[in-house]
Amino acid sequence: MTDAVAVRGRGPRHQQLPEEVASYVRERIISGEVKPGEFLRVEPIAEAVGVSNTPVREGLLALRSEGFVQLVPRRGFVVAVFTPQDIRDLFWVQAQLAGELAARAARNITGDQLANLEQYVEDYRNAVAAGDEERIGSAGHQFHRQINLAAQSRRLALLLGGVVSQLPNRFYASFEGRTAHTGELHLQILEATRKRAARKAQTLMADHMLQGADALIGLLDERGIWADAASA
After folding, report:
1. Among 53, 173, 182, 202, which is least packed, fewest CB within 10 Å?
2. In sequence order, which residues have a C-beta less than 8 Å from that of residue 198 and are 6 or more positions away?
3. CATH number, domain at 30?
4. What angle (nearest 5°) sits at the alpha carbon of residue 217, between those of residues 211 and 221?
5. Maximum C-alpha span of the chain
6. Are residues 162 and 50 in the same domain?
7. Are residues 67 and 95 in the same domain?
8. Per the domain annotation, does 98 fall within a domain?
9. How far apart are CA 84 and CA 166, in angstroms?
10. What domain range includes position 166?
């Protein structure tokens, strides 16, 4: 990220650097790349993100406030133990917020937004058929983004964004693809939205989010992260 280095220390961009660090480390933790009990060295993180050591420490302190890491005196930052229930809790909150946004989208969506939603459903199905994980992730993101925009509830969407930021974006396609009926759920949400069936859209979206929890837990279980957490 040479652009980060080039503009380091320049106002708002400088303030974003700890957030970039936090996002990078958070994703490595929640995806199982680094395990509970493992110490996080500042220098390799700084090199990977392309920043100095100071934003790294600030980003790790932010993760400490979120419960992802702990600060051990005279030793540094260590990955905190987390459980399947922690994952379920994150997705439960996401389900409540995303479900309400879907309900509001069904009431407020415009014709152009509905056409966009239809296109994203088709894009997702084509990406799945092609086995293209990057396109799966992109189409899925656009589908949910359009729902959130159509809801016309900026504050609620911002709250959802705060929760989603604690989930692994780079592994979205991996566990999204493991949810067997994701494409079908997208289509059902589209149909409920088209019919202005707000409560139906809410229920479908909440169920979709909760299935994501099961998929991510399964992915992490395969990586042995829960066994590692128990030993830590």
Report:
1. 53
2. 103, 104, 106, 107, 192
3. 1.10.10.10
4. 145
5. 60
6. no
7. no
8. yes
9. 14
10. 84-222
Spatial distance between the Cα atoms of 175 and 184, rounded to a whole number of angstroms? 16
Count of C-beta atoms within a 10 Å radius of residue 10: 9
Give me the phi and psi of 39, to 5 degrees please.
-80, 145
User: Within a domain: residue 170?
Assistant: yes
Helices (H), 109-132: 111-130
pLDDT 10s digit of each residue in the chain, 232 long? 333 333 333 444 555 899 899 989 988 887 778 888 999 999 999 999 999 999 999 999 999 988 899 999 989 999 998 888 988 998 999 999 999 999 999 999 999 999 999 999 999 989 888 888 788 888 888 999 999 999 999 999 999 988 887 776 655 555 555 554 788 899 999 999 999 999 999 999 999 999 888 888 887 788 777 765 555 5
SS3 of residue 79 by DSSP: strand
Residue in the structure block whose two tokens are 């994203």: 120
The pTM is what?
0.78
Burial class (CB in 10 A: 0-12, 13-18, 19+), 193: buried
In the sheet with 69-72, reading across from the earlier edge strand, the strands are 39-40, 76-79, 69-72
Residues 135 and 172 in one domain: yes
Statement to judge: residues 115 and 205 lie in one domain = yes
Examine residue 62 and state whether it is found in any structural domain, yes or no.
yes
The CA distance from 57 to 141, in Å, is 30
Domain end: 79, 102, 133, which one?
79
Q: How far apart are CA 154 and CA 137, in angstroms?
A: 23
Structural domain ending residue among the three candidates 79, 104, 130 = 79
Total of domains in the chain: 2
Report DSSP state, residue 104.
H
